[in-house]
Amino acid sequence: MEKIPVTFTGVRVTALLELYLRWLDSRDRHPILGDETAQQAIDRLDFDFGQFRPLSVGRFAVGVRSRTMDDWIRAFLARTPGAVVLDIGSGFDSRVRRVNPADGHHWYDVDFPDIVEIADRLYGPWPGHTYVGASVTEPGWLDAIPRDRPAIVVADGLLNFLPEHDVRQVLSRIVEHFPSGEIAFNITSPVVRKQRERRPVPLFTKFGIVEQWFPGDPRDVERFHPRLRLAEVGSLGDATLLRRSPLYYRLLTVLIGLVPAWRNAGWIPRYRF
To answer: Which domains does the chain possess?
Structure first.
């Protein structure tokens, strides 16, 4: 099958990096996420994924946070008939196929037009699924999404690449669009920002990828809109999900947990509204 050329720079490259890390997870003996479609996407894209190899340990964090969000979506849909799923900054993720929602739930994947065009070519149609090509920071893209149903919204690997004022605006628009629902995403703390300043990630420098939002605490987000309430905080070091990961990584998470600053370096928060 003909290869699809990809010449991304900037934040779009993170869609390729996340795909690569999900693919690595799928090849592990005991995958955390087990994304069976990652291989076909890697095979179709004309891109040098080998340059991401120095960041391969990131597959464990990506596996944990994506699995956590998948499980939250399944639980929400099971108790909320007719709910909508909104995956913003969906990149080349095939989450709708992993979750496989029951009839009556519509799923929307939102990302830049060039990304969703390629994603559609990679995966093809899926019942009840729609791609929306738009930047989430631009007004108007929510007009394509029904506003009369409860919704669960996920942003997996997106919001830390936006400035805080854009994060506040995006979350506020979502909360005001739906009658009720949940929002889940991953965030990193100022501890990570300080590390990045001391030791920049070479690949981020190469492609011009800039991380911009580093909140100090998941509860800070409650100030963005009066309807947002923190419901739960998942951990990137979830011992249950990591129980069959390599010993060296499990030992690393234990060591991180012994240092208070690093123990709170990143979270997977879920909010109700």
So the answer is: 4-272 (3.40.50.150)
pTM, entire model: 0.94
Query: Among 7-16, 57-66, 250-259, whose mean pLDDT is lowest?
Result: 250-259
Question: What's the Cα-to-Cα distance from 95 to each of 5, 67, 216, rounded to whole Å?
Answer: 23, 10, 29
CA nearest neighbour of 151 among 183, 186, 173: 183
Residue partners of 55: CB distance under 8 A and separation at least 6: 17, 21, 201, 203
Q: What is the pLDDT of residues 180-201, one digit of tens each?
A: 999 999 999 999 999 999 999 9
Mean pLDDT of the chain: 96
Q: Residue 8 is encoded by which pair of tokens?
A: 């991304």
- For 45-96, the pLDDT digits (tens) are 999 999 999 999 999 999 999 999 999 999 999 999 999 999 999 999 999 9
Q: How far is CA 77 from the centre of its chain?
A: 18
Contact between 194 and 172 under an 8 Å Cβ cutoff? The reply is: no
Using DSSP's 3-state secondary structure scheme, residue 132 falls into strand
CA distance 230 to 205: 34
Measuring CA to CA, how many Å separate 272 from each of 27, 101, 215, 220? 35, 20, 19, 14
β-bridge pairing 187-188 and 229-234:
unpaired
Report d(CA 108, CA 88) in Å as an integer.
8
